[in-house]
Specification:
The protein is of the alpha+beta class. Helices cover about 50% and strands about 15% of the residues. It is built from 23 helices and 29 strands. Helix 3 runs antiparallel to helix 7, helix 7 runs antiparallel to helix 8 and helix 11 packs antiparallel against helix 22.
Length: about 750
């Protein structure tokens, strides 16, 4: 058998028996002669798995794209020609993986179950380690113990260690067995061998009354390694949440009107081009559509970044994700859910997440060299000791010691421990990491792209400077504004506070609100609605009938420390630019206030992602900071990404970290901490390499026991832990001296 080496560190590798091939024809989507199918593949967890699946599916006749996302387990296949969807499923199943049609809900449930199983195994291993170590302490230091007491303690240790190894070792044993059956060797193979052989030799020594038993080595090894597995599983599930959130948008319901005018609730995935839909006020569009009848206003902030509501009329096209604000409208679907702007953003998100797996592929390459060396070294030690006259038990003793002392515990914990410590430090500052390899990528950032609305600015309009006449009239204007959903109306109400509402109120979509105040007819709305001359800014007007209208100006306030943040980032050698879907005038004004020299307005979600990709292609390491649905593709395409706490769920979940509060200083804090974490990671990896160079010859010489090997392995973990804790110390503020 030819062994192909790959590292599958999650403990959630391919099942030993593939799921029977299913016919997914009902899930195929066809557009412009190209068919596409999304599948969930159960088991792949490394670059070797990814390459094997993509290459084999890619060889099928007519396949144009076969892309597997390791974070979500989602395989997207696009093809043309007569290829049957069942053939794709059968190919994946024949490689040793379970495969079903894409169902985001079921995939998330299975991921949560796997994480709970790992936590159970970790808990069991932790309790077992404490119990066995308690029994082992007298054996280590009690030189006056009688033989009977020693044997009793060993048998009690065996009684504890055996079920612990059986239960807590399952993630490693099942992964190792599945990898061998699939003609792979992953890192769980040497780990499983070390644990099983250590337990078997300890049982043998206990039965024959030998001098050495090291049950503590087996359970301690599992405990430390399971810590890393739980961290990895949790971060994977968080990575999946972004795609799941978008999928939940697409699996919502909508109201479809039949030819007879009857309204019926349908799943969004069942909407077809040409269907007439009823969209209530406050409802979000699920597909791209053209307005058939009705006048209203639409909130496009999540789609385009446009801060002002847009008046809508018959014949106008709205993209999925837009919110109908003022009045019910009827629209005609222009696309299915899979062809909408939201689906395009989901695909951008998937592509971006796929790119992030490059770090895992690098780790897999290192494992290709490490794993054979561990096996070869242990086997060499076994054969060499036999050749020099040792018994089989003595030779196995040395081989087990080598496997234990070279177990990649320090190597496995080197990065996760740094991530945990750095994440804890950021957490205290109101910054939350949501991606496993975020720190590595954030440390390399040399270019920051900022969204405007909700990122550089606070996102919600606030009442700006107003004239004395407007100040006098604002209580009357608020009586009309309290009945409106318009963002500017809400801003005025927020500034004025609670109070009465005018009588006979009627809202005219796209224009304003009319009503009666103290017997007088009053209007509150756009300049054209009140016959005033617009100034070109963000404003609404108020007047009693026959009076001169007065203007209320509104601002999208810049975050208070935006200018300081730009200065600090520049001092760190990082270029900053502004990229927004809002209008040129507002973007230019925001850029000037923040001190950003380079800016771009009217950017669509696709053009945002394309611009970020172009920067990446030119060799820059881009940090995208955004909050809207229209930013999700760019967030996923960037080298790293950050979202403010007020961002939409999709953008927050697509980001590597989220910061709370109104301060942009978090961006500089994140990068500074990430650079410190990168330094600690490199030091830990260097120590792990030096550790193996030193301990392998010592273990081969037979100068250490398996117990000492486990202690040495644990000590190496302690060293990387202490080094990681250095990040927790607060650093001197970089704000000193900034204007």
């Amino acid at each position: 058998m030819t062994a192909v080496v790959s590292a599958c560190p999650s403990g959630l590798s391919a099942p030993s028996t593939p799921t029977p091939a299913q016919d997914p024809s009902a899930f195929v989507v066809q557009k412009d002669g190209v068919k596409s199918l999304d599948l969930i593949v159960k088991g792949p967890s490394c670059g070797g798995c990814l390459s094997k699946i993509e290459s084999n599916v890619g060889k099928l006749a007519g396949v144009r794209i076969a892309r597997l996302n390791l974070s979500t387990g989602r395989l997207r296949v696009e093809w043309s020609g007569q290829l049957k969807p069942r053939t794709i499923v059968e190919m994946v199943a024949s490689l040793g993986y379970g495969v079903t049609a894409f169902d985001p809900g079921k995939a998330d449930i299975e991921s949560a179950r796997a994480e709970r199983r790992l936590i159970t195994a970790l808990t069991f291993a932790g309790v077992g380690t404490a119990a066995v170590m308690f029994m082992s302490e007298p054996l280590w230091f009690g030189s006056d113990l009688t033989a009977d007491i020693r044997n009793t303690l060993r048998w009690i240790s065996a009684a504890v260690a055996l079920p612990v190894v059986i239960v807590s070792g399952q993630p490693f044993f099942s992964s190792a067995l599945a990898s061998i059956r699939a003609r792979h060797l992953n890192m769980d193979v040497p780990i499983s061998l070390a644990v099983i052989l250590a337990l078997a030799l300890s049982l043998y020594e206990t039965v024959v009354g030998g001098q050495h038993a090291f049950f503590d080595a087996s359970v301690m090894l599992l405990f430390f390694l399971l810590i890393g597995r739980v961290l990895d599983a949790r971060l994977r599930r968080r990575a999946y949440a972004a795609a799941n959130e978008l999928a939940s948008f697409q699996t919502a319901t909508a109201t479809r009107l039949t030819s007879g005018g009857r309204a019926e609730a349908v799943r969004v995935v069942d909407i077809r081009p040409g269907d007439v839909l009823l969209v209530a006020a406050g409802e979000r569009l699920a597909v791209n559509a053209e307005i058939v009848s009705g006048k209203s206003e639409a909130d496009l902030r999540l789609v385009t970044g446009e801060v002002l509501p847009v008046a809508t009329t018959a014949g106008q096209t709205l993209h999925a994700g837009a919110v109908n604000l003022s009045a019910p409208i009827q629209v005609r679907a222009l696309s299915a859910a899979n062809d909408s702007l939201m689906a395009d953003i989901a695909r951008l998100l998937e592509a971006g997440e796929q790119k992030k797996s490059a770090y895992r592929r690098l780790a897999d390459k290192a494992a290709e060299l490490y794993i054979p060396q561990v096996h070869a070294t242990a086997a060499l030690g076994f054969v060499a000791w036999l050749m020099f006259g040792a018994t089989a038990a003595q030779a196995a003793y040395v081989a087990v010691t080598v496997l234990i002392i070279t177990c990649p515990c320090a190597l496995a914990l080197a990065a996760p421990l740094v991530q945990v410590v750095a994440a804890s430090r950021l957490f205290r500052e109101g910054i939350y990491l949501s991606s496993g390899d975020a720190l590595e990528r954030l440390a390399a950032i040399d270019h920051v792209v900022l969204d405007k609305t909700g990122t550089l600015t606070l996102g919600d309009p606030v009442l700006g400077a107003i004239s004395e006449e407007a100040r006098t009239a604002r209580n009357q204007a608020a009586m009309l504004a309290r009945a409106s959903h318009h963002p500017f109306s809400r801003a005025l109400v927020k500034a004025v506070g609670a109070g009465p509402i005018a009588q006979n109120i009627r809202e005219i979509p796209g224009q304003g609100v009319v009503g009666t105040i103290n017997g007088r007819h009053a209007k509150f709305g756009s300049a054209s609605f009140l016959g005033a001359t617009a100034s070109g800014g963000s404003e609404l007007w108020f007047a009693f009938e026959g009076d001169t209208p007065v203007a209320f100006h509104f601002d999208d306030a810049i975050r208070p420390d935006a200018a300081k943040t730009v200065i600090e980032l520049s001092a760190m050698g990082i270029e900053v630019e502004l990229l927004s879907g809002d209008g040129e005038e507002r973007v230019a004004r925001a850029a000037k206030a923040a001190g950003v020299r380079k800016w771009r307005a009217l950017a669509s979600p696709q053009s945002k992602a394309a611009h970020v990709k172009a920067l990446e292609t030119s060799g820059q390491k881009v940090l995208m900071v955004g909050d809207g649905l229209n930013d999700a593709g760019a967030l996923a395409s960037a080298h790293a990404s950050i979202a403010p706490g007020g961002a939409v769920d999709v953008s927050r979940l697509a980001s590597d970290c989220v910061f709370s509060g109104d301060s942009l200083r978090a961006i500089a804090q994140i990068i500074t901490t990430a650079r410190a974490a990168r330094a600690r990671m490199r030091e830990n990896f260097a120590f792990a390499a030096l550790y193996n160079i030193v301990v392998i010859p010592v273990a081969l010489a037979g100068w250490v026991t398996p117990l000492i090997a486990a202690i040495a392995m644990s000590a190496s973990s302690a060293v990387v832990t202490l080094n990681a804790l250095r990040i927790a110390a607060p650093s001197r503020s970089r704000w000193a001296g900034l204007p």
